Prior knowledge:
Number of strands: 0
Oligomer: single chain
Structural class: mainly alpha
Helix content: 55-70%
Shape: elongated
Number of helices: 11
Amino acid sequence: AAMPDENVTEGLSGSKDGEAARQKMQIKSFTAWVNLHLKQAGMAVENLKTDFGDGIKLLRLVEIISEEELGKYNQNPVSKFQKVENLNIPLKYINSFLKEIGIRNTYSAENIIDEDMTLILGMVWSLILRYNVADISEGDKTAKEGLLLWAKTKVEEVSKGEVKVSNFHNSWQDGLAFNCLIQAYRPDLVQYQKLNKSAKVDNLNHAFDLANDKLEIPKLLDATDMVSMRPDEKSVMTYVSFFWKVFAANKRKKIAAERITNVLQRELAYRDLMEQYKLNGEQLGRWIKLKTDFFQAEPNCNSQAELEVEMKKHVME
């Protein structure tokens, strides 16, 4: 699927206060996303602004999500030169795939060492797009459009059109859409009709807890943040993409299971057929032996008429 055709360092619209609040939300969700992957290496970031500074965590993050080894690096960087050297390894990889998809942005070690938060968030967003969103496909839509179409379709199917999804911000603010999305695939977990539409924080936490505990989808969003301002589109999109990945994987597993079941059923039918064939063969062998023994034996008849009757009887059996 195509990458969303938007600038990965797109600014947050609205007032300065609103922009700061949404950036704060983005920092929370992006940090959670980074740590979800870094925990595989026994690492974590607490501050996106500073924790990529020596290049080690960024390099390990890229290695984990790309499933590629990026080569040797300074494991104990002290000087700025060593840190820049480390940073250039993953940044070369990031800039390369950005160029491949036609995005002109490039990131430098100086951006990270200078703690440029806007560019650091843009860089993390480019990784999220590449590894969480880019493979989402719905017809000829871009990944973003495809993800939105998928969510809209599933939510409206469950709610029979009562819950509308038209974007990745305020459509999700009351929590109903998240619960509908879960219900679409796991109706045993939630019935959105029983939720109170006005209890937004409760609805959101209900969905976030279910997703975390039952679907292994990490809590990237904060319910209070979601209702106190216009939600950050990139944060919501990142979170929804996890649902697509989980449910797409389940769909593939279901298809695979159905195929395995069909193969097993064919094997069982074949086995039953062979058993029946063997049984029929044994019965036929006994019948042939019986008839052979009869015809080879001396007839015990006193007349031609009795012999004909006996012959007819055996032919008819």
